[in-house]
């Protein structure tokens, strides 16, 4: 009797050891060609945030971060039960800043993806670093055609794993050109970029479309960032007697061009046109009446829906201010696409730990289709463009009405393929 | 409580072997515990030493990596500073290629460093900085890439001959020669050149834009420029367009160069804190590991001392226990045995235990009881035999006493002269022999006096032998009284007497002999009256024998006789 009891205890002990061994989570084997990330049950889920947080466009970078924060807040700041840790790096809206910020982020092997950038120039260098490291990256603000696709083909700075919810401004330049040529009847145009791939992409798109329509781009000038004396370049515009100046610049260079142009009598009748980077209250407040009569080409704003109104309310509640632009909506959509892709690509263990393949995450991002974004339905293509290309040309007639007044004054709408 | 009280009972019931085994097992366990504590302390120290070594190596590698990167930066800076002076080809060879080699080393070192830091020999804090090393590595690789790009764009801008600056210079010179005599066009050309130079000095793009604007005006003005043929105008226009194309590219190249420099600055911002932090962290780890060794050493020392003290206390406890269990019982048994031996047949051991000593005590007590019983029966017999023995003993002692008296009388008879009661010749010879041996051994002086009564034969003849015997007896008394206590006085033979004087030199013995002569001379013998004697004295010298000494005294006596009697003569030592 005693011996049989001993045997029972021994069997129970062995069984317990076996069960403990069997229940201990073994590391998931990784078959993903880009490698895998394993996140322990108590570990946070790490995301890199690479945005322009200093400099003249810091407000745009901040809008991107806010869009991300709002999306996170709706999920209780957790994804698949894991707290989300944001590793935030500043690019300063400079290409070299993008690369170095991305290097800092990808140095941590636990980072799943990068949310960024603000400026397209940063995106080109950051995406290169990101792609080489096998990560994924999504932006709610980049719009330079060079980053994804031009004319239905892979663009020069395309990088695998890079996606965006801001519309490719491949059509922004053509929209401006078509409006100038067709609606305004202008035939001679000058363009001014700042050497950045974003502004250069816009002026190139403008030139190609304008010349295709029969017009002439008589000046393709470049100013440097931080230049303040715009008179020489405007004098060049005068010299070539351009009817229109298309200058898709950021602040403050765009401000200087406008204000100094208004002081030049030879440019009184010259049409001035910029793009979405100046559709900001801060710009209108800075230049005020000088902007009257100026045109802007920019993405069609999101449709006003109850969901969008709810998001605006959340924005105001969280940041105690009204959103200065609608790019935070693109950021919100980009963040949600990223979160959905992470959820789709992750394999969650019984203990709550996550196993995620990097290529699987990219695949999930590229497979995004019909995402009900607040900026519109989003479907990502093979080049990383997720938003439809639809642009409005706006005319500022009443500076006092601010951005809202400007956005309401749509004088032309251009949609790719239509 | 009952279990506690059972322990002493259980202990008492164990055999001595078990008690010793338990005691020494516990001592051995303590020794093992001490050894384990020492071993654990050693292990901690060894681990900490390994961490120190790893941290020092990491710090060394960081220094090395940092130094190499700094060297690469210096080479990069020197390349930019020197190429205008020594030429691109030489600068490429002397600075660019070495810089690439140095960066390759930085990459190798940082890769090695990353592997070292991933190893288990370093602390968790250092392992946690592995991503920093990854950043360092990728930044170093980026430095190499950007450096190459920078050299590329600088080459585009400033390569001798083909560089934009040289091209601009050549075009400027060509335009100068074409437009020198063109009046207003030349003035515009000079203005254009001034703006371009302003740009090259300030690198402010608006200056170059002004140069381009002036070029635009100049091109328009060429049509009406005086002194230029249509062909020259076309040539000048072609040169001007080339000038504008080259000048328009220079600011773009400058922007690219500035971008690369900014990149370097950002790289430095990224990696400089890493190497600084890593060095500090590695140093901190070394200090921590040292502290750990120190603490482990102190802890191990304290533990060893504690276990040693505990061991000592335990050893004392074991000693006390063994004393109580073994030694005290043996002493008690021994004491009982002593009492028994002393005759106390009622003595019994009080040792009570379950061990071998308890059994021995019980056996001893049984034996004592048996002995007491046997002794009680034998006592009467012993008393009877004792009385018989006492009687026989008395008789024996009486016989012994009688025998002793007879022996003493015989002894006197054999060693004493029968007439005078002085020492006889045999005893005198024994004394002489003893003194000779003493003198030889210890070097003590001794002397003898040999005296012979003068004309004693005539006394016998005149007064009869009885009177002679009376004289001899009286002289014996005189000699005995006059001689010292230590002197041996004896009758040598007939009317000759010999005195053996221990520790007496010749001078003293001569004086003694003289005193004896005078005493004799002044004595009045019954019936005979005055009697004289002749004396020969001699002192023992080393080499003398008893016979030679007596012969010296005898010769001196003979000389005294020959010298008229009643005198003292000193014997001369014999020469060998």
The proportion of residues in beta strands of chain B is 5-15%
| Sheet with most strands: strand arrangement of chain B | 2-3-1-4-5
CATH topology of the largest domain in chain A: Rossmann fold
**What's the total helix number of chain B?**
14
Q: Helix- and strand-based class of chain B?
A: mainly alpha
| C-alpha Rg of chain B (nearest Å) | 69 Å
The largest β sheet of chain A comes out as:
7 strands, mixed
Shape descriptor of chain A reads elongated
Q: Overall mean pLDDT score of chain B? A: 86
Q: Count the domains of chain A.
A: 2
Just name the CATH architecture of the domain at 417-570 in chain B.
2-Layer Sandwich
Shape estimate of chain B: elongated
Helix content of chain A: 40-55%
Order of helices and strands of chain B: HHHHHHHHHHHEHEEHEHE
Global Rg of chain A: 25 Å
Q: Output the structural class of chain A.
A: alpha/beta
Write down the CATH class of the largest domain in chain A: Alpha Beta
Number of helices of chain A: 13
Distance between the termini of chain B: 104 Å
Uncertain residue segments of chain B: none
Summarize this structure as a short list of keywords or feature phrases.
heterodimer; A: 418 residues; alpha/beta; Rossmann fold; 2 domains; 22% strand; B: 576 residues; mainly alpha; Alpha-Beta Plaits; 5-stranded mixed β-sheet; 14 helices; 5% strand
Give a verbal description of the structure.
Chain A is of the alpha/beta class and 418 residues long. Chain A has two domains: 36-169 and 303-389, 3-Layer(aba) Sandwich (Rossmann fold); 171-299 and 391-415, Rossmann fold, CATH 3.40.50. Chain A contains 13 helices and 20 strands. Chain A has helices spanning 2-23, 58-74, 95-106, 120-132, 172-183, 197-213, 231-240, 253-262, 281-287, 306-319, 327-345, 358-366, 402-408, and strands spanning 36-39, 45-51, 78-79, 82-90, 111-116, 136-139, 149-150, 153-154, 162-164, 188-193, 216-222, 244-246, 271-275, 295-299, 346-348, 354-357, 371-373, 376-378, 390-395, 410-415. In chain A, the strands form five sheets. Chain A has a seven-stranded mixed beta sheet, sandwiched between helices. Chain A has a six-stranded mixed beta sheet with strand order 3-4-2-5-6-9, with helices on both faces. Chain A has a three-stranded antiparallel beta sheet with strand order 1-16-15. The longest helix of chain A is centred in the first third of the chain and has 22 residues, at 2-23. Chain A is elongated, with a radius of gyration of 25 Å. Chain A starts with a helix and ends with a strand. The model of chain A has no long low-confidence stretch (mean pLDDT 92). The radius of gyration of chain B is 69 Å and the shape is elongated. Among the domains of chain B are: 167-266, no CATH class; 417-570, Alpha-Beta Plaits (2-Layer Sandwich), CATH 3.30.70.270. A five-stranded mixed beta sheet of chain B has the order 2-3-1-4-5, with helices on both faces. Chain B is built from 14 helices and five strands. In chain B, β2 (488-493) and β3 (496-502) form a beta hairpin. Chain B has helices at residues 2-13, 16-86, 88-118, 124-127, 130-158, 164-179, 184-202, 205-222, 230-341, 356-415, 425-442, 456-482, 506-522, 546-562, and strands at residues 446-453, 488-493, 496-502, 533-539, 568-570. Chain B is mostly helical. Classes of the chains: A alpha/beta (418), B mainly alpha (576). Chains A and B meet through α3 and α7 of A and α5, α8 and α9 of B.
């Amino acid at each position: 009797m005693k011996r049989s009891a001993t045997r029972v205890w021994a069997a129970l002990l062995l069984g317990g050891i076996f069960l403990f061994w069997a229940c201990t989570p073994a590391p998931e084997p990784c078959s993903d060609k880009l490698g895998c990330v394993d996140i322990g049950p108590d570990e946070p889920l790490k995301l890199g945030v690479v945005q322009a947080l200093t400099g003249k466009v810091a407000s745009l970078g901040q809008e991107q971060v806010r869009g991300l924060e709002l999306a996170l807040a709706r999920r209780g700041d957790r994804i698949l039960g894991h707290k989300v840790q944001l590793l935030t790096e500043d690019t300063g809206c400079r290409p070299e800043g993008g690369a170095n910020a991305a290097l800092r982020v990808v140095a941590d092997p636990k980072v799943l993806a990068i949310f960024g950038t603000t400026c397209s120039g940063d995106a080109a260098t950051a995406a290169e670093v990101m792609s080489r490291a096998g990560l994924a990256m999504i932006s709610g603000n980049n719009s330079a055609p060079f980053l994804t696709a031009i004319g239905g083909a892979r663009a020069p700075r395309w990088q695998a794993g890079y996606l965006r919810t801001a519309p490719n401004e491949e059509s922004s330049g053509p929209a401006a050109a078509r409006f100038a040529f067709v609606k305004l009847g202008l035939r001679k145009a000058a363009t001014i970029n700042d050497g950045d791939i974003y502004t250069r992409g816009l002026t190139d798109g403008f030139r190609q479309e304008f010349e295709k329509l029969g017009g002439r781009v008589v000046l393709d000038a470049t100013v440097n960032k931080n230049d303040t004396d715009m008179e020489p370049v405007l004098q060049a515009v005068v010299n070539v007697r351009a009817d229109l100046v298309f200058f898709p610049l950021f602040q403050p260079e765009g401000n200087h061009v406008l204000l100094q142009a208004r002081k030049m009598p030879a440019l009184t009748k010259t049409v001035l046109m910029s793009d979405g980077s100046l559709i900001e209250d801060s710009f209108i407040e800075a230049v005020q009446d000088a902007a009257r009569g100026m045109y802007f080409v920019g993405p069609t704003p999101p449709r006003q829906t109850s969901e969008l109104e709810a998001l605006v309310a959340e924005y105001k509640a969280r940041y105690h201010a009204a959103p200065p632009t609608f790019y935070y909506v693109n950021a919100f959509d980009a963040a949600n696409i990223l979160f959905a892709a992470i959820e789709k690509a992750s394999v969650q263990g019984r203990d709550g730990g996550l196993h995620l393949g990097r290529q699987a995450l990219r695949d999930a991002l590229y497979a995004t289709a019909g995402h009900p974004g607040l900026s519109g339905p989003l479907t990502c293509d093979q080049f990383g463009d997720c938003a439809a290309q639809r642009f409005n040309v706006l005319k500022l007639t009443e500076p006092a009405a601010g951005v809202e007044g400007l956005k309401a004054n749509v004088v032309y709408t251009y949609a790719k393929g239509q | 409580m009952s279990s506690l009280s059972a322990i002493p009972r259980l202990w008492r019931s164990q055999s001595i072997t078990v008690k010793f085994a338990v005691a020494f097992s516990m001592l051995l366990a303590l020794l093992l515990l001490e050894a384990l504590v020492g071993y654990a302390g050693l292990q901690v120290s060894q681990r900490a030493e390994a961490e120190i070594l790893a941290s020092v190596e990491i710090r060394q590698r960081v220094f090395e990596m940092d130094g190499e990167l700094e060297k690469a930066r210096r080479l990069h800076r020197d390349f930019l500073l020197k190429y205008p002076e020594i030429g691109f080809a030489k600068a490429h060879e002397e600075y660019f290629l070495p810089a690439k080699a140095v960066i390759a080393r930085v990459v190798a070192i940082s890769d090695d460093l990353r592997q070292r830091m991933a190893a288990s020999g370093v602390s968790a804090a250092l392992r946690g900085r592995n991503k920093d090393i990854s950043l360092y590595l990728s930044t170093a690789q980026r430095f190499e890439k950007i450096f190459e790009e920078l050299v590329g764009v600088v080459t585009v801008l400033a390569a001798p001959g083909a560089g934009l600056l040289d091209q601009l210079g050549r075009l400027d010179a060509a335009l100068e020669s074409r437009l020198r005599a063109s009046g207003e066009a030349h003035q515009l050309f000079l203005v254009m050149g001034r703006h371009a130079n302003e740009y090259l000095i300030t690198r402010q793009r608006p200056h170059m834009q002004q140069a381009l604007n002036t070029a635009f005006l100049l091109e328009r003005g060429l049509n009406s420029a005086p002194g230029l043929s249509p062909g020259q105008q076309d040539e000048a226009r072609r040169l001007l367009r080339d000038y504008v194309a080259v000048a328009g590219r220079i600011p773009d190249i400058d922007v690219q160069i500035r971008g690369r420099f900014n990149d370097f600055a950002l790289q430095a911002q990224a990696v400089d804190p890493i190497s600084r932090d890593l060095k500090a962290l590695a140093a901190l780890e070394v200090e921590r590991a040292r502290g750990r060794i120190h603490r482990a050493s102190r802890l191990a020392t304290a533990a060893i001392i504690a276990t040693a003290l505990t061991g000592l206390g335990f050893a004392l406890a074991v000693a006390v226990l063994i004393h109580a269990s073994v030694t005290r019982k043996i002493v008690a048994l021994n004491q009982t045995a002593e009492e028994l031996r002393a005759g106390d047949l009622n003595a019994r051991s009080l040792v009570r235990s379950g061990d071998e000593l308890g059994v021995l005590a019980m056996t001893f007590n049984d034996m004592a009881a048996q002995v007491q019983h046997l002794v009680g029966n034998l006592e009467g017999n012993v008393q009877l035999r004792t009385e018989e023995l006492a009687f026989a003993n008395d008789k024996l002692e009486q016989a012994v006493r009688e025998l002793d008296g007879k022996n003493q009388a015989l002894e006197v008879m054999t060693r004493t002269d029968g007439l005078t009661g002085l020492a006889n010749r045999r005893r005198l010879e024994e004394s002489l022999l003893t003194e000779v041996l003493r003198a030889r051994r210890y070097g003590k002086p001794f002397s003898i006096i040999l005296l012979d009564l003068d004309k004693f034969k005539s006394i016998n003849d005149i007064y009869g032998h009885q009177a002679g015997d009376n004289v001899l007896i009286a002289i014996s008394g005189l000699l005995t009284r006059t001689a010292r206590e230590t002197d041996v006085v004896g009758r040598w033979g007939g009317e000759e007497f010999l005195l053996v004087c221990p520790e007496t030199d010749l001078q003293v013995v001569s004086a003694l002999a003289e005193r004896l002569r005078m005493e004799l001379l002044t004595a009045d013998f019954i019936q005979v009256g005055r009697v004289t004697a002749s004396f020969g004295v001699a002192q023992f010298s080393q080499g003398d024998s008893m016979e030679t000494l007596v012969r010296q005294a005898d010769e001196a006596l003979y000389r005294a006789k020959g010298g008229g009697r009643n005198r003292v003569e000193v014997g001369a030592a014999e020469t060998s």
